[in-house]
Tripartite tricarboxylate transporter substrate binding protein BugD
Amino acid sequence: MKRRTWIAATAGALALPVLALPSRARAQGWKPERPVTMLVPFAAGGPTDVMARLLAQKLAAILGQPVPVENVGGAGGILGTQRAARAEPDGYTIGLGHMGTHSANPSFYKALPYDPVASFTPLSLFAVNPMVLAAKPRFVRDLPELRDWIGQNKGRLTVATAGTGSVSFLGALLFDRATQAGATLVPYRGAGPALQDTMNGVTDVIVDQAVTVIPQAQGGTLVPLAVTVPQRLPQLPAVPTAAEAGLPALDIAVWNAAYAPAGIPEPRARVLTAAISQALDDPALAARFAEMAIQVTPPDQRGPEPLRALIAREIPRWARLTQEAGVKPE
């Protein structure tokens, strides 16, 4: 499926049926009286934005109020995340974030304008985006062949990234450490140019979110080598997991979560958390996510506590990786 076909599919995915669901959220004791804004710290049209609009449509039906999505992109998600942190903590702002904005950014920036822990009230994880290691056409056929090439060409591999601190940059760091390739990580201004130069053979490989790699792999403009999660993807059934291909250390997925500003009254946070969980239980939403290789968070991993525990593990994980790679915070 080529990129324009995928864009059409995602546009169709936004047209979810709005069901009159009995609301567990409203039973929690607070009912919004005006729209609840969802802040997305990335540009419109990307994976986070598409997920946000699907989720917002369901939340609107559950909460009984519109949930407009506002995109505040820039600086690797920092600007929008800062905006969410500084919003009024009254329950009328939900900020979205992911592994980059809330666990990796402290390793890349000396003075973030927000604290990923103290500035927010965690609401819930809601989705995981697998990543895919892919190569330029006519380079290698599989991961073992790539590793053989690396063994004979130490220090010559180039890996495209969407910029320092991006999730593809983290994937590239993890891949380089796992293979000891001594690779050159080439930063671009976003995933689009990074993918384009890999497809055109300017760079050798890329590690990016499955939702962006799948159309190119299906269209033959990239060669998928491995999936970075424990299960194969239905869209790429012949592509092994990294563990199956002999590289278990290439273990990375982009978790996505919802937050409120710190200081929100606990009953209102509880209502928003319950509404998110209710939306994720909708089979139509799960099906739309699955079409894009996005995995809905299972019930036992939702809510504030699993999210707090995940961030507590993830921040030191990326700190260790960046320190070992010699990355200096800006």
User: Anything to note?
Assistant: The CA atoms of residues 168 and 208 lie 5 Å apart. The radius of gyration is 20 Å. The domain at 3-129+254-324 is CATH 3.40.190.150 (D-Maltodextrin-Binding Protein; domain 2).
